[in-house]
Each structure stands twice: as C-alpha cells, then as structure tokens.
Design a protein that fits this description.
Elements: E1 2-8, H1 14-23, H2 28-35, E2 44-52, E3 55-63, H3 73-81, H4 87-108, H5 118-121, H6 123-138, E4 143-146, E5 149-151, E6 155-158, E7 161-164, H7 168-173, E8 179-181, H8 191-200, E9 202-203, E10 211-219, E11 230-237, E12 245-256, H9 261-273, E13 278-285, E14 291-300, H10 304-315, E15 321-329, E16 331-339, E17 342-351, E18 354-359, H11 361-371, H12 375-381
Parallel strand pairs: 1-4, 4-9, 5-8
Antiparallel strand pairs: 1-11, 2-3, 6-7, 10-11, 12-14, 12-15, 13-14, 16-17, 17-18
C-alpha cells in the first residue's frame, strides 16, 4: 500500500504540500496539463529548486491573469467540476474546501453559504487544493498520514485586521489533533495547509514501518534562522492491514419451561440439519420463578422464516423473537492433519496475520472408535499448527 507521510518541520501551507509532492516525482508538465482543464485564463504552473536550511527543496510558482478574490464555495466547486476530473479527485478537493469553509463559518458565526473565501477564492489556493489531490492520485497514494502539527506564535495582519497565530480558522481545524508551538513569531501553518492534512489524512506521531521509496521537500516562502522552512513528504510502501471478514446474520430466541432435555436435543439437531449456523440452550428463570431454557439460534438472513418455523414446530413455543446483527469472523478453509499415520479432517483458520489448524470433532471421534482409544488421547496428540 502506497502511503505518504508529511512531517511538519516548520508548519505547512497549501503550496508547501503541493511542492513536496512535486519533489516526490510528479512532473510539473502533468500537473499543468491537468489544471488547464479548468480553463482559467492565463494560469501558469512552474516549479523551481531552492534550499531551506541547507536542504534542497522544490517550490511551486503559480501565476494567473484571472484574479477573482471573492468567491463562494459553490463558485469554487463549479470551477473544479468544469475540469471533468475523476470523481475521487473532485471528491477529495470538495471535502477539503468544504471543511475549510465550515471552519471560517464557525469563526465568523455565519452559515457556510455566507462565507467569503478571501484567500481560498484566489486561484493559487484553488490550485494548491486541487493540485495536491491530483498529485496524490498520480503517485497512487492510498493513505495520507501526518506528524504532530507545528504552529508559530504572535499575530498576523489579515483582511479582518490583526489576528492571533494560529489564525482562528486554523485553530478550529486543529481541534482534536496534536499540535505544538515552535519559536517562530508568525504564521507557519495556514488554514489551507491545515485543511488539506486534517481532511485527507490521519495523524501519526511516528512514520509507519515500511519500505521508503522516495523523499520530497516542499519549500515555504520565507527563510527562518535555525529551522528549515520546509515540509518533508515520505512515500513508502507498507503492508496493507489484513481486514477482518464481516457478515450479517439473524438471531432467533425463545424462552420455554415446558419441554424435556430429549426434546431440546432433538430440536437442536433438526435446526442444525436445516441450516442453522449455531444453536445453544441457556438456563433462565422465568415468570413465577420457574426454571426454564432460552433457545438461541443463529442463521443466515435468508433462512429466518425456515428456522422460526422449525423452532415453533419442534418445541411448541408460542413465539420467537428475532433480530439481525453484524459479526466479525475468521477466514476458514478445509484442511487435514495426520495423527498416528491416519488422516483427520480439520479446518484452517486465519485472522489478521494469526492462524491455527483445528481438528474436526466428528473425524477425531471416528478415529477414536476405530482405534478403541479415549478421545482425549487423540486430542492430546493433535499437532497444533499456529502462526
């Protein structure tokens, strides 16, 4: 699985994220060609090499003749939709911009539709968001991770006047994420950078174990003494986690105090014969203090009516409760084990990297009768294959 890990050495902005992905190997010509599909007049995308703190970095440069600095979210999304991008790319960009707009709306106490996207409306910010999504698609990135986020301190001058650092919208986007302040008296984590990372990625304090394929650095606009103003992106291949198997089953129950053990056993056999996945009896105390049993049957959803009919017919209970539920199950496959030179049926089970092989009872019991030995003796000789 291709994973990109962003390490925020000195904050992050939209152009730093985009620049780091270009430094990982996305051709600028590819990005420019894709962005041209929006048909924004005069849009030019270039990249240059620079250094920050002695580290070679890429810095993207955006120029455009069309500058619509006041846009609403629908205008921006319509501009992106006009490019006819893959649904995944369009969806990612839409989520980032919507989350950014929601943060601005909360800060100003207005609805999302009322938000004026000052910086977000600028063409270069649209390019940062959409360009990042296009680069992630080009690199085949399946998961985005990012480190603890770093922010500066002090204040900045904006269209709304002097505001604290981190900016109010950035602070909203940081809710629920680990962050620390470093000694740089200005904004280093921008709202666009925070929206990209926290919307598209998951926070991971440490880079995941895996094979590092490439490392890229995206440069910030300014230089700071003692700290490189750069964002590091690490592209790695990691083993995809084995997913648990899920399915949905029906559970049928009925409480009864009027039948004998023989009937209970026969009912369980019949239920298993017609397709029940499991049958159990649990002692319960019923009304008037009578001891009774709860019959619980698990089955496939398609077998619900058949199993309910069997329960009523075999026990003469007056009603059956049922519900559907999800379950997590280990994968299993037929296998064979050798015990004293004889083949015994078994099942091989696996779950999230762990596996074992278990001998089937019926096969073990048959062998015990054949050899005229206690079943326990054979169970103790079963080779336990675990991993």
């Amino acid at each position: 699985m291709h994973v990109v890990y962003f390490q925020t050495l000195c904050g992050a902005s939209g152009d730093m994220i985009l620049s780091s992905l270009l430094d990982l190997g996305v051709p600028v010509s590819h990005l420019a060609k894709q962005l041209a599909r929006m048909k924004i007049d005069g849009l030019q995308v270039n990249a240059e090499k620079t250094t920050r703190g002695g580290i070679a970095c890429t810095r993207v440069a955006i120029s455009c003749g069309e500058q619509k600095t006041w846009r609403h979210l629908p205008d921006i999304l319509a501009c992106i939709r006009a490019g006819g991008y893959p649904s995944k790319v369009e969806g990612m960009a839409g989520r980032v911009l919507t989350r950014l707009g929601e943060a601005e709306a909360r800060v100003h106490g207005i609805s999302l539709d009322q938000v004026h996207f000052h910086e977000v409306g600028a063409v270069d910010t649209i390019v940062d968001v959409l360009g990042t999504c296009l680069c992630l698609e080009y690199l085949g990135v399946e998961k985005v991770l990012f480190s603890e986020l770093s922010v500066g301190h002090g204040s900045i001058e904006t269209a709304h006047g002097i505001l604290p650092v981190p900016a109010p919208a950035t602070a909203r986007l940081l809710e629920g994420f680990a962050a620390r302040t470093i000694d740089i008296p200005t904004e280093i984590l921008t709202p666009t950078g925070a929206a990209l990372l926290t919307t598209l990625g998951e926070q991971a304090v440490c880079m995941p174990a895996g094979t590092v394929r490439r490392i890229g650095y995206g440069s910030g606009e300014r230089s700071f003494a003692g700290r490189p103003n750069a964002l590091r992106a690490v592209l790695s291949d990691i083993a995809a986690p084995e997913e648990a198997h899920h399915d949905r089953v029906c559970i049928l129950e009925s409480d009864m105090d009027h039948i004998s053990g023989e009937v209970m056993a026969f009912a369980a056999e019949e239920l298993m014969r017609i397709g029940a996945l499991d049958v159990s009896w649990t002692p319960v105390f019923m009304k008037k203090g009578r001891p009774g049993y709860r019959l619980c049957v698990m089955g496939r959803q398609d077998d619900l009516a058949t199993l309910a009919d069997c329960m009523i017919a075999q026990t003469r209970t007056l009603g059956v409760r049922y519900r559907t539920t999800d379950r997590i199950i280990a994968s299993r496959a037929a296998a064979s084990l050798a015990i004293d030179g004889a083949a015994v049926d078994a099942k091989h089970c696996a779950y999230k990297g762990r596996s074992f092989t278990k001998a089937e009872y019926e096969s073990l019991a048959s062998l015990a009768r054949e050899k005229d030995v206690p079943l326990l003796d054979l169970i103790e000789r079963v080779p336990h294959k675990k991993k």
